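2024-03-11 09:14:02 DEBUG pipeline.ingest accepted 1 chain
2024-03-11 09:14:02 DEBUG pipeline.ingest length=454
2024-03-11 09:14:03 DEBUG pipeline.predict start
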Amino acid sequence: MAQKLRDIYDALDHGNYKNCLKLCTAFLQKQPGHALCKALHAVALERCGRRDEALRQCEEAKASPTGVDDTVLSTLQVVYRRCRQFSSIARMYEAAATKDPDSEEMAVALFTAAIRDSDFARAQQVATKLYSKHKKQKFLHWVVLSLLLQAKSGAATKVLDLAAMMLMKAPIDKERLSGKDPVPFNRSQLYLLMLHLDTLRMQGKHAAALELLETCREVVKVPSDIASLRTNLLAEAGRAQDAAKEARGRVLEHPGDWGAAEEYIRRTFECPTPEVEISDHAARLRPPGGAFPSLATLEDVAAHGTEDEVWNALLLFRHLQEKSEQEGQEASAAVSAAATSRVARLAQLELRRRTFAASEAAAEEAGKSREAFDWRGAALDSDLVDFVTAVKEYLARFAHKPNCFFDLKPFLALLSEAEVASVVGAVDVSGLSDQRRALEASKTAARLPAEAGE
C-alpha cells in the first residue's frame, strides 16, 4: 500500500496528473474508504481542471470512515485554496479542532483559516482559547491582531478598547531599551510595537503613538522604517507639513532612493494648497522672473523657498541634481552621483506630472467634465516645453541604461506622437563609444513611440 501511495505522489510531483488519476482509481477500487488517496485524487482532479469533481472528492475524503489526520487535512487544504474555498478550510479545521480540543496544532490551523476567511471574530475566539490554555505570548498578540482586523472591518470602536486592555498584559520591555548596551534585534518585540502603534493610531492617539515610537527606536533597526512610520503618523494626525518635513529629511539622507523621493512628493501635495487658479496648478512650479536661481547649497534652497511645499520640493531636487552632476565629474563618486541625478530628474518630472493631474482634479471638483476640460489647454506653452525638455535631458543622460524606458513610461503617456518623436531625437547613439551602451540606447529609442498618449 505504501508503495502505491508513493507512486501516486511521484506522479503528482512530475505533473503526470492523468496517470495519477488512474493510480488513484485503481487504489480506491480495492480500498474505497482510504481518506488520503481520496485527497490525492482530489488534487489530481483539480490539476486537470475538474474542480467540481475535486470538491466532491474532498467531501468524500472528510466523510471517510477511516478518519482524517494532519496529512489528509493539509492535502485537502491544497485543493480548497486553489479553488478559493476558504470557508471550507475553516469548517474543515473547525471540525478537526472540535474532535481534538487539546491539539494546539489544530487550533493554530483553525486560527489561520479563520483569518484567511475574514472571520476575525472567530479568529479572536480561537486565539483567546489558545492563550488561555497555553499561555504563550504570541497567542495574546493574535488576539489583539484579530481585534484590530475587526475594527478595520467596521466593528464597533469598543473592540479597540479591548485591544488596548489586552496589550496592557504585553508591555514593551522599555527598561532594556534605556540601558547602555546595544539592543539586539528581537522580531517579537518589533511585532508587539507594531500592534501598540496600530492600536493607538486607530484610536486617534497619534501623539501617544509618536511618543512610543521615539521611545522604542532601538526596536526598529532600519532607520528608513522609523522615518516612514513617523511620516505616516504625522500625516494621519493632520500634520501634513510636518509629515512632508520628515519625508524631506529622508530624501536628504538618501538622495539616490526613488522610494524616498516619491514619498516626499506625495506628502507635499497633501500640504495646504496656496491660492492658485483652478485650472493652473502648473503655476506652482514656475520660477519668479522666468529663470531658476543657482542652488549650489541648501542655504540657497532655503533662501528661495516659499510656503508652497511643492515649489520647495522642486528647488530641493534641482539642488540635488546640480550637486550630483558636479560630483559626478569625480571618478570616486560617479556611481552614487549618477543614482542621485537620476532620482532628482525623475522627481522633477513627477512633480510636473502631478501638477497637471491636480489641475484636472480641481476642474472636476468644480463641476467640469473631462471632455470639457483640457489640461493641455490650461497649461502654458512654457510648461509643456519644460516638461518635454526635461524628458529629453533625461534620455540624453540615461538612454543607455536598461531601466530608462520604464522610468519614463508614466510620463510618455502625457506626450503627443509629435512630442515623442522629438524626444526620440535626444537619443544620440553616435556619442556612445561602448557598443553595449549604444545597443541599449537604440532599444530604448525604438520603444518610445508606442507609449505616446492619444
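2024-03-11 09:14:41 DEBUG pipeline.report The chain has a mean pLDDT of 88.
2024-03-11 09:14:41 DEBUG pipeline.predict end
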